[in-house]
Amino acid sequence: MVGILKDRILSIKDRISESARKSGRDPSDVILVAVTKTRTLDEILEAAHTGEISVFGENRVQEGEGKIISWPRELDVRWHLIGHLQRNKARKALDLFKCIQSVDSTRLAELINRMSEERGIPMDIFLEINTSGEASKFGFLPMEAESACLEILEKYPFLKINGLMTIGPLSNDEMLVRSSFSQLRELKEKLEISSGRRISELSMGMSGDYEWAIEEGSTMVRIGSALFGPRIYDRD
Ligand SMILES: *Cc1c(COP(=O)(O)O)cnc(C)c1O
Question: Which CATH number fits the domain that encloses residue 102?
Answer without folding.
Answer: 3.20.20.10
